[in-house]
Amino acid sequence: MRISVLGMGYVGAVSAACLARDGHDVIGVDLDLDKLRLIEEGRAPIVEDGIQCLMAEVVAAGRLTVIADATRAVRATDVSFVCVGTPSMRGNGEQDQTAVLRVAEQIGVGLRDHDRFHVVVVRSTVRLGTVDGQLREILERTSGRRCDVDFALCFQPEFLREGSSIRDYDNPPFTVIGTRSERAGAMLLEMFKHLPCEFIVTEPATAEALKYACNAFHAVKITFANEIGRIAQAMNIDSHAVMDLVRRDTRLNISPAYLRPGFAFGGSCLPKDLRALLHIAKTRDVEIPMLGSLLGSNRLHVERAAEFVLAHGGRRVGMVGLSFKAGTDDLRESPLVALAEILIGKGLELRIYDPHVNVAVLMGANKRYIDKHIPHLAALLKADYRDVIRDTDIIVVGALLPEAVSGIRSLATVDQYVIDLAGMPEAQDLQSEYQGICW
Ligand code: NAD
Predict the structure, then answer these.
(1) CA–CA separation, 138 vs 74, rounded Å?
(2) Prediction pTM value
(3) Is the CB of 70 under 6 A from ligand 1?
């Protein structure tokens, strides 16, 4: 294919050299004439393992040429990769998209008298909604052509790490293309099908958010390991030995477990042990702001659920699930108990269905906990799930108890409001108004 790469920084230079190596004819574009001169001489504008040789090879083979004029490059090619920088703005941290928007205008002008279908692939990290919003609008306005008909727009998050960019380019975790155009998806599949990874087409905004989610997750992991390291060091414990073992658990730790948006955490272990760890750090004067923020963030999640209920204005609330995990009767630090407490405190009429919780047989710490928080629980519990669905204004789905979920499906009416904390399947088929806790 004939490809333009706009912006010859870390991402653009590696992408251009690898695309040229893979047999495509590539035109590299940058405003920085010094960078273009270097590339013309077969030298890479960045320091990166393997890039010097690769750049020399593809330039000598005539596969990679450069110009400063983005519009001309776009006219001569079928696909454009946007790899210009999006640095943080001073002050508020917002991404400065000036270069991306400027390049979009130049591409649009190039598309104006382009007689073929052209695919614009954004690889720069952009604010959520930019591709389907501002960029689509700029490209349609400046080109006078229709997106998804005469040209297509995609977002392809880039997972290169500086220092191992070429290896990462050849071995990505997956190739994700955010686009509304099937034709563009098919063209990019053809371009990247040789890569040893899954190829996934999704919504543009999902792909944009994926990039932020991945980088935030990496930052969380690094900070987590460092905070555990600081506590371990203060206690003369080998932090590497601890984290080596943390990583060895691929069932619960390094795994999909606990990585779905849902309701707050709770139960008899997580809050208790987290508090204990924070206490250890405090007594040793170790600062661990990330771990220290978790209980507060978790509390906000419970308050958010209460706010959804209170904002509706209805007074009669049916709640499905109460224990901290469906299928158990453990009420200790259940976030659903915390939610119930807030709602009762606000004077709402609450009915609860949880067939695993039987007040008569609760004992020990579990009984003490509920006696302290909802002493009249027995009066709120209903043995029949239908009693929390009928004659209520709001239904809170706190657990996916199958009989109650199918009851909500068949019995909930248009004038009821379902607040989902657990991730009901096929919620779009409900007759009632529906609100997920964070989806
Ligand atoms: P960079 O600053 O190294 O390179 C950007 C290049 O774009 C510069 O050479 C600049 O001269 C050029 N440019 C700016 N405006 C231009 C214009 N109007 N026309 C042509 N060229 C123009 O940036 P980078 O590190 O390669 O990152 C590019 C984007 O990719 C950013 O959005 C970044 O967040 C994202 N990203 C970077 C990495 C990485 O490892 N560096 C990884 C994934 C994603």
Answers:
(1) 15
(2) 0.94
(3) yes
